[in-house]
Known about the structure:
single chain, 340 residues, D-Maltodextrin-Binding Protein, domain 2, 12 helices
Amino acid sequence: MRTKNIVLMLLAVLPAFQAVAADASQSNETVAVHFAFSRSMFKDINQNDAVAAMKVYCKVIGDADGFDTSSGPIYLDGTHAIAEMLRLKKIDIISLGTEEYLALEDQGLSGPLLMATINHKVTEEYVLLARDDSAIRSAGDLKGHSLIILNDLRASLAAVWLEVYCREQGLGPANQVFTKVTTSTKATQVVLPVFFGKVDTCIATLSGWEVMGQLNPQVKKQLRAIAVSVPVVPGLACFRRDLPEAVKQLLLKSADESGAKPAFRQVMALFKTEELSRQPDSALDGTRQLIATYHQLCAGTNQDLTSGLEAGLSQKASETKEKHMAADKQPAQPANAPPP
């Protein structure tokens, strides 16, 4: 999971560096582009290591290609900090969690959206697991049991989905369902405690659980899927809305072409990430619906603490979703799908 998150960030910015450098060489002008990262992208990465690596990375690219990265990438804590840097035009392209993006759409962020594909998908699904020989067979059996949740970038919306699932199943707030809830940033430390009977249930990514099942068929055999979430987009890269169109198009062109370059293919293969792809706003529809449902169900309660957003901005994601999908006459998609 750690290497997946690193490549999400590197793939988002490396094509951009190449495109801006090419433009600078043709015009004999120094082009400055400001890159930013939300610290939510570093949930399962040592932040000191990540910051040091990105600083060296930017300097090497800048020295080789002759464009201005002297400002260096900036690392921002929370949506308020991101909003302020957007106001000051200190961000041109940023990688951040999808919930943060939805809250900031109306404050200066825009597409096209760039998303990394893993297993040929830009989305992630969450799975609620219990031992097959336990008494937990359905949602109604969850009360009074312990839970461990994966807490990395790919699972950034797992707690939000859990809250929606518990409430839609008539169980009430998630913190009143489980006797103990813990988290871990490592998939093995989430799934294996349930496998060995030390924890009653867990939430992992469906892709991570399937990989563990391939490596250890006993894990797949002895764990039961109680529920699976709708597909959601955990994170993305996007642009400052008033970034000059010419610069944006250069960044997009380079991103579109990155998958054909051998150097990029080697990096993608090493980190098990296939490509960086441009996606339409509609790719976020399922994620918008989940977050909007979460805020509707939790309105007037303290459960917004489950959300990764700061006070005063958490509802923005819901309001933005309603604006984008007001014309959609389709019935709302349920927050969970049948288990595989």
